[in-house]
Amino acid sequence: QSQLAESGGGLVQPGGSLRISCEESTFSTFSLTDYGIGWFRQAPGAAREWVSCISRNGGRTDYGDAVLGRFTIDRDNAKKTVDLQMNNVNPEDTAVYYCAAGFWQSSAYCAKDSAEYQFWGQGTQVTVSS
After folding, report:
1. Using an 8 Å Cβ cutoff, are 99 and 82 in contact?
2. Residue 112: is it exposed, middle or buried by C-beta count within 10 angstroms (0-12/13-18/19+)?
């Protein structure tokens, strides 16, 4: 069973907005607040692509070139959630979106490489279409 759970996916029109969330699943054996979080996506027939990440302390965020300026990642450690706000979406954003948790010594680090993450969710489908 997955340690993380994504929610909020769905159908959105081009140019629209959507907010997806990541939280600990009922099977979680760790606290999300102790980990950096990354968002990845995978479109049909394509490789998994890194989208964004946020450090454990929330002080560092990073974005892939395809989403820079349109997507925003943030975390609420009181609620134990990490959200991805997606604005001005386009059909190329259509994919299954996964969140992942990674632990690093530095609280101000997050990774682009999926191999650096220890826990994953099952994904949420985002479809951009008119």
Report:
1. yes
2. middle
Q: Let me know: does 21 contact 75? Beta carbons within 8 Å.
A: no
pLDDT at residue number 29: 87
For residue 70, give the nearest of 115, 128, 122 by alpha carbon: 128
Count Cβ atoms below 10 Å from residue 107 Cβ, excluding itself: 13
Contact 119/100 with Cβ under 8 angstroms?
Answer: yes
The pair of three-digit structure tokens given for residue 81, joined into one six-digit string: 């959630």
Residue 52 burial class via C-beta count within 10 angstroms: exposed 0-12, middle 13-18, buried 19 and up: buried
Q: How far apart are CA 32 and CA 93, in angstroms?
A: 26
Tell me the per-residue pLDDT of 117-127, one tens digit each, with 9 for 90 and over.
Answer: 999 999 999 99
SS3 label, residue 102: strand
Asked whether 102 and 111 are in contact (CB, 8 A), the reply is yes
